[in-house]
Specification:
The chain is of the alpha/beta class. 35% of the residues lie in helices and 14% in strands. The strands form 2 sheets. The chain has a 7-stranded parallel β-sheet with strand order 8-7-6-9-10-11-12, with helices on both faces. The structure holds glyoxylic acid (2 copies). Keywords: Oxidoreductase.
Length: 325
Amino acid sequence: KKPYVYITRNIPEEVIAPLKTLAEINVWEGGNKKVPADILKREAAKSIALFTTLDDNINKSLIENSPNLKVIANMAVGYDNIDVSAATKHGVFICNTPGILSDTTADLAFALLMSTARRIVEGNQFIKEGYWKDWGPLLMVGRDIHHKTLGIVGMGRIGEKVAKRAAGFDMQVLYHNRSRKEEVEETLNVTYCTFEELLEKSDFVVNLLPLTEETKNKFDSTAFSKMKNEAIFINVGRGLTVEEDDLLDALNKGEIAGAGLDVFRQEPISNQHPLINLDQVVAVPHIGSASIDTRYAMMRLAVQNIVNVLQGKYPEAYVNKDVTI
Ligand code: GLV
Ligand code: GLV
């Protein structure tokens, strides 16, 4: 009997193909609607491998209830939706898709930064709703990007790609990270500073933090109050690293000038949420890595991670290095 593999999203046949000869495959048929927790738990209990997405909650009880499970291939670089320590304890590989999405995600960070600073979405609405009657010297004026100071919080692979883009805009780049990266400082001409110093000096603050115990709620009222009133906050990291009520307050009080958001505490965020209704907020639905090429590459890598484990090999990319075959 072939091992059972459960895939929590409807992904293209051609991507699943390499698994076909190795496993019996069951794919959740809900399209983009996520699999309900009870079904996921039931399916996981039968599976040797799971293909998951970042909104599938893989908790301890699911893992403990799945004795055959050997690998969970998350189609994301982040893996805060998975209880990694429980998985490690049970010898389950937790796989992610690092590297291949860094450029695409950096592009999105820059797209959000530019559209917030230059009021692209507002301008688009302005025309579409028929408000454009005359040209004006101060019509839809925004903020410059070039020659400004960019602060990157969380200098991983994506941060480096953001810094590279910023160089083309003649920006000065500051970064804050858990550990200093002297090589990156040299090659990309970026300057390390404390979190507080970065907030005080930056015109654009780009948050790329993963969600951990240390990063949870890191951007709170204290953080926003340190930022310049002209500053724009970009979040392409994780929603729970930001106190959204404090962000809303900071925007309403004019403590900061705008925000470009790809991630939220609660996803999907409601269109009734007050943040979404502010003109100075540009929001997109967690699409950092969402180019056709990159999403296919991520799906293929997640499938390959499963294939490797089914063939008795180590996955291409996994995060819990204590797990062995
Ligand atoms: C997206 O947020 C990812 O972690 O890949
Ligand atoms: C993700 O690739 C990161 O390290 O930022």
